[in-house]
């Protein structure tokens, strides 16, 4: 198991014990009668998450620092990755729930001395807005492609396997940190073209005559098509 010392997850646990109390988010339990996982724990996973849902669920199962932050026993089996998507959907459906979760987090991090006020930073300058828009579009593109690949890997692994290139595991295996991309504007443009080619390869294969038609109807594949039409064509 990985156990990096001094990680944010462990620091939050050391200072606060519990960041989100279940009582504050009772409305975020499933409403269909299924056994409900702790909304406080799912909220904390969502805050810590810099991974795909599948990778985050794996981290809960295998990483000591995440288990410590969540107050879980070492042998706790965790949960299925789909739980995270369902939790975010409930969070989005309830008016003000996401804002309340964010405010609770900010207040407690400030109280614990983990968040301090900084100086002023103008964000209305044209170059700042353009850079932010460029990075946001690139993050949208790569996350759309990653979601489509994950969906196809579950629905048709044998169909997808021949299309996968060796470097894709590293490129799309986890959430991409676009903000940390070195090389400036030229590197961002090159990466955008790289993502575009990879997505086009999947879309071209999905629309050839011998491909099972149901693959084109998968939700994430349709979103991929729409995003590529909008951003690349």
Can you describe what's shown?
The structure is a single chain. By secondary structure, the protein is mainly alpha-helical. Helices cover 60% and strands 0% of the residues. The chain has eleven helices and no strands. The protein has helices at residues 8-16, 39-48, 53-62, 64-70, 82-93, 97-111, 126-155, 157-160, 168-172, 184-206, 219-232. Helix 1 runs parallel beside helix 4, helix 2 crosses helix 5 (82-93) and helix 7 packs parallel to helix 10. It starts with 7 loop residues before the first helix and ends with a helix. Mean pLDDT is 76; it is low at 1-6 and 121-135.
Shape: globular
* Series of H and E elements: HHHHHHHHHHH
Rg of Cα set: 20 Å
Binned, the helix content reads 55-70%
What's the number of extended β-strand segments? 0
Q: Report how far apart the termini are.
A: 45 Å
Which structural class should the secondary elements be placed in? mainly alpha
Main β-sheet, in a few words?
none
Mean pLDDT across the residues is 76
Q: Quaternary status of these chains?
A: single chain
Strand content: under 5%
Q: Number of helical runs?
A: 11
In the predicted model, the low-confidence regions spanning at least 5 consecutive residues are 1-6, 121-135
